[in-house]
């Protein structure tokens, strides 16, 4: 999914890191629209830093749709929704923000964070370094107290986060975007348990989740076997039950419903009228005290 063009500044990111460039490419596409749902001038800068990285996805013969056709709308809708959730929480009681597996997320730079916001972004060191250098060289400035935390979510990242200055006694808004469906069920349980252990009462959680479907599997398989393997399924239980078991009070919204509220077509991957489609959700939850 994508190609890296030549040039002395070209940077190679593999696996999850390169997948995050795909999300940046979709955000850059949305930013070019006159009716864009959000503004992200930094997405294209990140692609340029990667040597002119471009997203190319073949059309699936059976459906006539590409991965871009299927997922661009979902990325636009989820970005707009999660932007609003994060800013509302930070302006209310959650002055501490954690972006898990932040990838090419430019929210520290592009969102108007309330005064006093302290934001931690957690990802692999090479991903964070790439993004920091790309945005610093373009003159971008974070609009919050911004801390990058190099950590692997499969390891002891909570301790690394604490050492970086995270305070578990302060209500936190957590973002788990594009993560849950990339985890097997047991790993999703561990991730949520760790967030819960680190959260003061009143903390909030924002996330998305996607049900796999014949349309998505065929589109991923047309790109690479690696992208097929990255999709692991996430929680086994329905999202309300899963979050409630850990003490969170959730609100779960369908992608199709939000698309209509934003006056956008339902993304094909989540269109109930399209054969082979599945369901997608955007999630908010509050930790009960």
Automatic annotation (TrEMBL):
Keyword Transferase carried by entry: yes
Molecular function (Gene Ontology), one example: methyltransferase activity
Transmembrane segments: none
Endpoints of the signal sequence: none
Single Gene Ontology BP annotation: methylation
Keyword Methyltransferase: yes
Top EC category: transferase
Keywords: Methyltransferase, S-adenosyl-L-methionine, Transferase
InterPro entries referenced in this protein's UniProt entry, alphabetically: Ppm1/Ppm2/Tcmp, SAM-dependent_MTases_sf, SAM_mthyl_Trfase_ML2640-like
Enzyme Commission number(s) from the entry: 2.1.1.-
Protein family per UniProt: Belongs to the UPF0677 family.
Role, per record: Exhibits S-adenosyl-L-methionine-dependent methyltransferase activity.
NCBIfam families recorded: mthyl_TIGR00027 (TIGR00027)
Protein name stated in the entry: S-adenosyl-L-methionine-dependent methyltransferase
């Amino acid at each position: 999914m994508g190609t890296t063009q030549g040039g002395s500044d070209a940077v190679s990111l593999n696996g999850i890191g390169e997948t995050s460039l795909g999300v940046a490419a979709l955000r850059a596409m949305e930013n070019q629209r006159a009716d864009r749902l959000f503004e992200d001038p930094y997405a294209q800068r990140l692609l340029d830093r990667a040597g002119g990285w471009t997203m190319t996805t073949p059309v699936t013969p059976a459906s006539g749709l590409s991965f871009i056709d299927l997922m661009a709308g979902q990325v636009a809708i989820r970005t707009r929704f999660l932007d609003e959730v994060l800013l509302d929480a930070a302006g209310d009681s959650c002055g501490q923000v954690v972006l898990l597996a932040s990838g090419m997320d430019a929210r520290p730079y592009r969102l108007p964070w309330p005064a006093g916001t302290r934001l931690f972004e957690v990802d692999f060191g090479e991903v964070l370094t790439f993004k920091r250098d790309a945005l610093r060289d373009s003159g971008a400035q974070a609009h919050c107290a911004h801390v990058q935390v190099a950590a692997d979510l499969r390891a002891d990242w909570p301790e690394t986060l604490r050492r970086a200055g995270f305070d578990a006694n302060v209500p936190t808004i957590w973002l788990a975007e594009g993560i849950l469906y990339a985890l097997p069920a047991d790993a999703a349980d561990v991730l949520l348990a760790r967030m819960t252990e680190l959260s003061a009462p009143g903390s909030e959680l924002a996330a998305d989740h996607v049900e796999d479907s014949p349309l998505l599997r065929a589109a991923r398989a047309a790109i690479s076997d690696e992208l097929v393997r990255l999709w692991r399924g996430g929680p086994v239980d329905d999202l309300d039950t899963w979050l409630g078991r850990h003490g969170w009070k959730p609100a779960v919204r369908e992608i199709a419903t939000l698309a209509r509220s934003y006056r956008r077509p339902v993304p094909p991957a989540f269109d109930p009228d399209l054969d082979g489609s599945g369901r997608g959700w955007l999630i908010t939850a509050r930790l009960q005290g």
